[in-house]
Amino acid sequence: MNGKEFVKPNAEQVAWVLKNVREHFNEGGTSRYLIYERLGFKGSEFQTLSQDGLALSQMAEEFRDYEKVMSLLIESRKNGNDLSQQELEEVLNSIKDEV
């Protein structure tokens, strides 16, 4: 981490970060939104957090896409239908087009 030594945060601090990351996974948003708005960092602090913030935002987006696909598959199976490979690819492409 940039060659700096860090002090271990306490449990309350980690809980606050995890709460905000969980909200980011559920609600979405860019890495900038995560860092600036949810976590409240400004200016030069963004550079320190940007790489991991971007990785978390991408994971959150993929998680939400996965949830959409799984919901469609479950609903399809409840209705007695199995989606073909082509239909699955169409679903995935339509989800990616939304982003």
Structure in words:
This protein is about 75% helix and about 0% strand. Helix 3 (about 45-80) packs antiparallel against helix 4 (about 85-99). It is built from four helices and no strands. The chain has one domain. The chain starts with 10 loop residues before the first helix and ends with a helix. The radius of gyration is 18 Å and the shape is elongated. The model has no long low-confidence stretch (mean pLDDT about 85). It has helices at about 10-25, 30-40, 45-80, 85-99. It is mainly alpha-helical and about 100 residues long.
Topology (elements, then pairings):
Layout (H helix, E strand, L loop, with lengths): L10 H17 L3 H8 L6 H34 L6 H14 L1
What distinguishing features does this structure have?
99 residues, mainly alpha
Indicate the proportion of strand residues. under 5%
String of helices and strands: HHHH
Q: What is the number of E strands? A: 0
Q: Give unreliable regions as ranges.
A: none
Number of domains: 1
Largest sheet composition: none
Taking all Cα atoms into account, the compactness measure Rg is: 18 Å
Broad structural category: mainly alpha
- What is the mean pLDDT? 84
Helix segment count?
A: 4
What overall geometry do the principal axes of the alpha carbons give?
elongated
Query: What separation lies between the terminal Cα atoms?
Result: 31 Å
Q: Helicity range of the residues?
A: over 70%
